[in-house]
Amino acid sequence: MKEEIIISGFGGQGVLSMGKILAYAGIMEGKEVSWMPAYGPEQRGGTANVTVILSDKPIASPILNRYDTAIVLNQPSLEKFEPLVKPGGCLIYDSYSILTKPTRTDINAYCIDAMVEAARMQNAKVFNMLILGGLLKVRPIASVDDVVKGLYKALPERHHKLIPMNEAAIRRGMELITPSC
Amino acid sequence: MLLKGNEAIAHSAIRNGCDGFFGYPITPQSEVLETLAVLKPWETTGMVVLQSESELASINMVYAGGATGKCVMTSSSSPGVALMQEGISYMAACEIPGLIVSVQRGGPGLGTIQPSQSDYRQAVYGGGNGDYRVIVLAPNSVQEMADSVGEAFRLMFKWRMPVMILSDGAIGQMMEKVVLPPFKPRRTDEEVRQQCPWAINGLGLLSRKPNFVSSLELDAAVMEKRNRAMQEKYRAIEAEEVLYEEYMLDDAEYAIVAYGSSSRISMGAIDQLREKGVKVGMLRPKTLWPFPEQRIGELGRQCHALLTVEINEGQMVRDVRYAVAGQCPVEFFGHSGGVMPSPEEVVDKMESIINNR
Prior knowledge:
The complex is a heterodimer of chains A (181) and B (357). Chain A is an alpha/beta fold and 181 residues long. Chain A has helices at residues 15-28, 75-81, 114-120, 127-138, 144-154, 163-176, and strands at residues 2-10, 32-37, 47-55, 67-72, 85-94, 108-112, 178-179. Chain A has one domain: 3-Layer(aba) Sandwich (Pyruvate-ferredoxin Oxidoreductase, domain 3). Chain A is 36% helix and 26% strand. Chain A has a 7-stranded mixed beta sheet with strand order 2-3-1-4-5-6-7, with helices on both faces. In chain A, β4 (67-72), α2 (75-81) and β5 (85-94) form a beta-alpha-beta unit. The longest helix of chain A is centred in the N-terminal third of the chain and has 14 residues, at 15-28. With 357 residues, chain B is α/β, with parallel strands linked by helices. Chain B has 2 domains: 2-190, Thiamin diphosphate (ThDP)-binding fold, Pyr/PP domains (Rossmann fold, 3-Layer(aba) Sandwich); 245-355, Rossmann fold (3-Layer(aba) Sandwich), CATH 3.40.50.920. Helix content of chain B is 43%, strand content 18%. In chain B, α7 links the parallel β6 (135-137) and β7 (162-168). Chain B is globular, with a radius of gyration of 21 Å. Chains A and B meet through α1 and β2 of A and α8, β8 and α11 of B. β2 of chain A pairs antiparallel with β8 (175-177) of chain B, so a sheet runs across the interface.
């Protein structure tokens, strides 16, 4: 098993931390992992992306230009990464955050109304966990249990009280995701 | 544990009994200093962590700390390492141990903050003046970043010279699983006295004459003698300390030579080429100086062609050509300025080499 994932969006959406939690979940599953961010003048409102690889075997290149799964959380990310999904791969987008839908027919596209749901829950911070839940539903690369264990590793102890809320958001995301329409 | 390469350097320095870190922040290596500031080793091991006013100050603090026999280091990125070259030359001249971690970004000048390997020549051939060498280690994973610190400390005291860990923004910024080395205490004054009888630290003055450390020597004949002695040391290092790793070379008809993050990209390319039935492998230098010249020479006999993959405009390729000595063609592929090559591009380049043979 090898899953090569790009997560891309605006700085502040929790792109990098979602990747980190996923990487920790991979470790919990006994997998090799790599987390390679696009770094630099990224900031709130700028662009941010991270390449996460989970694999049964040692990971060769942590830098890729084709992906099994792309999670795109804004329009520029959709335009950049839709063409780079491998045929048969998976594209996940937040419905509210994009203007034009993906057009490729040789990939599986899914949408999730996470931005709106986070607003409804009056908790913008769970946005990325809703998305992560959606990912885990359509690409079960790690169990929710291992993701929760990953959260305990990824978050500093003072934030551990927030983990049940994050777990609830992951499970809500699993319900929300639907094929792109 | 999941750590960035830069964070692994900081953890590993503390665990390997480092006495002092002197550094100045610069992307993409700032996490080394940041992590040390978070870990506060001065409260546990007594290690000094100091943010200096500039890279010039950092390297001169390393020069001075090393001269007292202490285990000291700095880290920086390309423009900062350029500023340090004078100090590195002085350290080499005075045979002073010290570790410089270089997390390369794209140049020349201030360049970009994205990953690069364009300081290969600066590291391997020395950006400072004079006939000197620096041992250059080239880790290609977060685990090797952690491991290379202890290895660098060992080498710099064994050979009494500056050692460089030549990394890049990709290895520095990415997170991977890592097992950190066990804690090793800092050396006591008594251990320093025994292990570094050349050091200028006032230890042992009752039993020896005062030591004197200077790179200046106005008598040309004496200076030449010093240089010749250093060259002898360098020949011994070339004989003893070459490190490399082989990947699928046994039946290889073509081979890639790459180090650091470009070796990871090349491994991805080799996996794709092997699936297509192309017999290709890789030699990865783990020390860039001393360079695995002999093994690359053998590959020149074994293979139809060699390819270097670098994140620059072609630097190591000249050393590979020198080692191959015309036995087979040696081609180059790379990007620069912070653009990263992709495994697919390396596949295309290797296929074009094969098709044009």
